[in-house]
Automatic annotation (TrEMBL), chains A, B:
<keyword id="KW-0547">Nucleotide-binding</keyword>
<comment type="similarity">
    <text>Belongs to the SIMIBI class G3E GTPase family. ArgK/MeaB subfamily.</text>
</comment>
<dbReference type="InterPro" id="IPR027417">
    <property type="entry name" value="P-loop_NTPase"/>
</dbReference>
<dbReference type="GO" id="GO:0016301">
    <property type="term" value="F:kinase activity"/>
</dbReference>
<dbReference type="InterPro" id="IPR003593">
    <property type="entry name" value="AAA+_ATPase"/>
</dbReference>
<keyword id="KW-0143">Chaperone</keyword>
<protein>
    <submittedName>
        <fullName>LAO/AO transport system kinase</fullName>
    </submittedName>
</protein>
<keyword id="KW-0808">Transferase</keyword>
<keyword id="KW-0418">Kinase</keyword>
<dbReference type="InterPro" id="IPR005129">
    <property type="entry name" value="GTPase_ArgK"/>
</dbReference>
<dbReference type="GO" id="GO:0005525">
    <property type="term" value="F:GTP binding"/>
</dbReference>
<keyword id="KW-0378">Hydrolase</keyword>
<dbReference type="Pfam" id="PF03308">
    <property type="entry name" value="MeaB"/>
</dbReference>
<feature type="domain" description="AAA+ ATPase">
    <location>
        <begin position="49"/>
        <end position="193"/>
    </location>
</feature>
<keyword id="KW-0342">GTP-binding</keyword>
<dbReference type="InterPro" id="IPR052040">
    <property type="entry name" value="GTPase/Isobutyryl-CoA_mutase"/>
</dbReference>
<dbReference type="GO" id="GO:0003924">
    <property type="term" value="F:GTPase activity"/>
</dbReference>
C-alpha cells in the first residue's frame, strides 16, 4: 500500500522517466492500491499520447520473440517504447506466473524501453480496467508506443488486444492456422497479421488462407483492409514490414477519425469495468456469509432460480 | 423470441427427453430470450442432478476427439450424456463460429446423447451465466453427465471449466507442455490431467513434468491429488482410465462435502454474473448517447480520470 502523500513525487519522477517510479506506479495498478484514483487523476492529462499496439496469438507462435524484435525495430525509428505483457491471473490463486519477468533482457540496458509483465491480483474490473491504467502510466512516462502483449487466445485476451489502437495477430505455419484464428475470434480484431516462422513449410498456405478469409470479409470502400506481413522473428527478419504496416494503419486511423472512436471505446470499457468492479466488490465473497452466499446456496439446492436470486442480490447492493 | 405461454410445454417435452425441445431451450439461454427467467424457474428443481465435467486445453491437443471418445466411454457405463461445446463469441460480431455444430456426428443417432455448441450472443452475464443455465436444461432432460468443453486457454474459458464438479485438462506432448499449462492457469484447476496423443515422442517427459509440478503443490492430507492419465483419443485408447479417474474424483467430492462447495461456488458465479449483466445493460451502449458514452469521451480526452468517471456512472445506474 502506498501513502497518498507519496503519489505526487512518484508521478513527478515517472514523468521524468525514472524507471523505478514507473515500475512502482504499475505495481499500484496491478495491486488495486487504494491510492489508485489519485494516480489516475494525476496521469489523466497525458491520456492518448502513445500509440497503443495490441499483440496476441496462440501459445507457440513466437509472441515473446516477436515482441522483442518489434521493440528493436521501433527503437530504430527513435520511438520510446513501453511493453506490457499481460498475464491473466489464475482465477484461484491470483498468482503471478513464471517466465515473463525474466525475459527480454536484450533491452534491459536501454533507457528508452520499459518492460513490465502484469497480472491483476486485486484490481477492480480486472484486466479491462488495469490495462488502460497501466498504459496511461507509460504514456505519462513519455512512451510513444505501448505494446500490450497478451498470453493465450481466450476471450479476455482477445478483448484486451482489441482495445488497442492497432491490433497485431501473430500466426505461425502448421498450428491449425486460419481455422484456429477464426475459432479464437481473432480474425475480426486483426489490423495487421504477422505470419511468424515464415521460413517454415506451410507459410505460403497460411498466407493464402488468411488472404482468402479476408477476401470473404464484408468491407466498405473506406474501411481498413487488414495487412498480412511475414516475419522470421528469431532471425530478426520482416519486422520492418510490420512497423510499416503499423504506420499505415495509424495514418488510416487518423485520417478517418477512427483513432478517436477506438479510444472512446477503450475508455468506455475501462470505465464500465471499474464501475462493475465496484459493484462486484459490494456483492462480497459468497463464502463469507454474504447475501450472495446465501442466495447461491438456495440456487444450488434448487429452491430458487438464478434470475430471481440475481434480482434479490441487486436489491442488496444498490 | 419465445412466447411465455410456450414455455411450460417446451419444458414438459424437454423433461421427457425430446431433443428438439432441449435444443430450443438451450437456444433461449444462448440468445438471452425474455422468457429465460420463466425457463430458469421451471428448471430449478432439477439443479444438481448431473455430474458436470469441464474439459479444457489449448488448441491442437485434441479436445474434440477426446470429447467424442469420452462420450462413447461414458455411454458404455449407461449414463445419459450432454455435451456443451462453449464457443466464446468474438467481442465484435458475437457470431457463431464454424466447425463445432457439424462435428461429433458419431453420436447423432444415439438418443442418450445431446450435443450442442453454444455462444453467448445476447446473454446477460456472458458464459458464466449461460453455461450453468444450459447445464440445468440438460439436467432437466435427464442427463447424468454434462461435459462442458471450452475452446482455448484464456481466462474466461479456464473460469468456465473450473466451475465444473470435475475439471479435466488436456495436454499433448510437444506443445510447450507443462510450462504452457502453468501460463494458461490450468494447473490449479485440473482435477484430472489427460495427456492425449500419448503414443507420440515426448509423452513420457510431459507425464513426468506434470507429476513434478504436482509434487511441488501445497496439499493437505484430505486434499485431492490430481490424477494424471494417458490417452490416444484418436484410437479410442485410455478413455476408460479417464472415466475411472472421474469416478474417483466424484467419490472424493461426495465424501468430503466438496461437491456442495463447488456447486455453491458455481451458483454464486451464475447469480453474480446475471446481476452484473443487468447492471451492464443499464449502462447501455456507449455509442448511443448514453452517460457511459459521454463519460468515456471525457476520459479519452484527458478531462476526467476513469475512477471519477466510474463513480459518476454508478450514480446513473443505481
Amino acid at each position: 500500500m502506498t501513502r497518498s502523500r507519496d503519489v505526487p513525487s512518484l508521478v513527478a519522477k515517472a514523468r521524468q522517466g525514472d524507471p523505478r517510479s514507473v515500475a512502482r506506479l504499475i505495481s499500484l495498478v496491478e495491486n488495486g492500491d487504494p491510492a489508485l484514483p489519485q494516480v489516475a487523476a494525476a496521469m489523466a492529462p497525458w491520456a492518448g499520447r502513445a500509440q497503443v499496439i495490441g499483440l496476441t496469438g496462440a501459445p507457440g507462435v513466437g509472441k515473446s520473440t516477436t515482441t522483442n524484435e518489434l521493440v528493436r525495430a521501433l527503437r530504430e525509428t527513435g520511438a520510446r517504447v513501453g511493453v506490457l505483457a499481460v498475464d491473466p491471473s489464475s482465477p484461484f490463486t491470483g498468482g503471478a506466473i513464471l517466465g515473463d519477468r525474466i525475459r527480454m533482457q536484450d533491452h534491459s540496458a536501454d533507457s528508452g524501453v520499459y518492460i513490465r509483465s502484469m497480472s491483476t491480483r486485486g484490481q477492480l474490473g480486472g484486466l479491462s480496467a488495469a490495462t488502460p491504467q497501466a498504459v496511461r502510466v507509460l504514456e505519462g512516462a513519455g512512451c510513444d508506443v505501448v505494446l500490450v502483449e497478451t498470453v493465450g487466445v481466450g476471450q479476455a485476451e482477445v478483448e484486451i488486444a482489441s482495445l488497442a489502437d492497432t491490433t497485431l495477430v501473430l500466426l505461425a505455419p502448421g498450428m491449425g492456422d486460419a481455422i484456429q484464428a477464426v475459432k479464437a475470434g481473432v480474425l475480426e480484431i486483426a489490423d495487421v497479421f504477422v505470419i511468424n516462422k515464415s521460413d517454415r513449410p506451410g507459410a505460403d498456405a497460411t498466407f493464402r488462407d488468411i488472404q482468402g478469409m479476408l477476401a470473404l470479409g464484408d468491407r466498405g470502400p473506406g474501411d481498413w483492409r487488414p495487412q498480412v506481413t511475414r516475419a522470421v522473428a528469431v532471425k530478426g527478419e520482416g519486422l520492418d514490414d510490420v512497423v510499416a504496416a503499423i504506420g499505415k494503419h495509424r495514418e488510416w486511423l487518423e485520417s478517418t477519425g477512427n483513432l478517436q472512436v477506438r479510444r472512446e471505446r477503450r475508455a468506455a470499457a475501462e470505465v464500465s469495468a471499474l464501475a462493475l468492479g465496484v459493484l462486484r466488490a459490494r456483492m462480497g465473497d459468497p463464502r463469507e456469509g454474504t447475501a450472495l452466499g446465501e442466495l447461491a446456496a438456495r440456487v444450488a439446492a434448487g429452491e430458487l432460480d438464478p434470475h430471481a436470486a440475481a434480482a434479490l442480490l441487486l436489491e442488496t447492493i444498490s
